[in-house]
Amino acid sequence: MFKQSLVLTAIVSLLLVGCSSDQRYKREVDGSEDYLNSPEIKPLIVPNGMSIPPQTNDFYINRAAGEGMVGRNIDIRPPLLPLALVADSYASYEAGVVSVDLPEYANFWAQIPSLLAKHNIAVAENNNQTIKTGTRSVVQSDSGESIAATYLLQREARNGREYIKVELTSLTNNGQDISADSIQSQRYTVGLYNMLINDLPSSVNTEIDE
Q: Is residue 64 situated within a structural domain?
């Protein structure tokens, strides 16, 4: 009896380890893909001598051309959104660019080079208005993809505010250019910004309230 319990425990442990190491569930559709093999809808054939109701568009099924990924190739992860973690700030993402408006006292721009260095991202160019990064490398644990990205950050200061923009200058997956993929571009543009703003000292978020 003891041996049987030991064997069962070992089997369950192996199953749990296998499940925990497989991260594909985070991005894949769960369930059967049989729907992909569904036949096309056939036109209605009315036998001679039978009348049918007048045609209406209410129940018309449009024929849509299938483009893009299907089944488990669809990435179901929700899009990232930029975080406004600094008090009295605003952040948005549109057309490939993260735009953030925050008070100058947060000193965000001046800290960006050191925040990048913390994540092993080199700075290729740096002045009071522009920062160009070296390559940011990311290996996705759930897919094994090797992502490489470079960025351009721009700053404008006026009336005690900093207006900063973050955008990609290149994005590759295992050496293949994927910058035209809007979902991936958003993920890695917003991902860099969120990583940097999240690393600001927590005191910055409360200074305006003190």
A: no
Nearest-angstrom CA–CA distance, 142 and 25: 8
Residue with tokens 């056939």: 42
Counted domains in the chain: 1
What residues form DSSP beta bridges with 177? Answer: 172
Q: Which residues contact 169 (CB under 8 A, 6 or more apart)?
A: 132, 150, 151, 152
Q: What sign has the CA pseudo-torsion 198, 82, 208, 116?
A: positive
CB-based burial of residue 12 (10 Å sphere; 0-12 exposed, 13-18 middle, 19+ buried)?
Answer: exposed
| Tally of CA atoms within 13 A in the half-sphere of 156 that contains its CB | 6
CATH number at residue 118: 3.30.530.50
pLDDT tens string 24-83:
545 555 666 776 777 877 777 888 888 887 877 777 777 666 666 666 666 667 778 999
**Neighbour tally for 71: CB within 10 Å:** 13
Q: Domain of 119? A: 90-204
Residues 104, 158 contacting (CB under 8 angstroms): no
Pick the closest to residue 136 from 201, 200, 187, 80 (CA basis): 187
For residue 67, tell me if it sits in a domain. Answer: no
Asked whether residue 116 is assigned to any structural domain, the reply reads yes
Q: How many CB atoms lie within 10 A of CB 101?
A: 16
In a domain, 23, yes or no: no
Beta bridge partners of 147: 138, 173
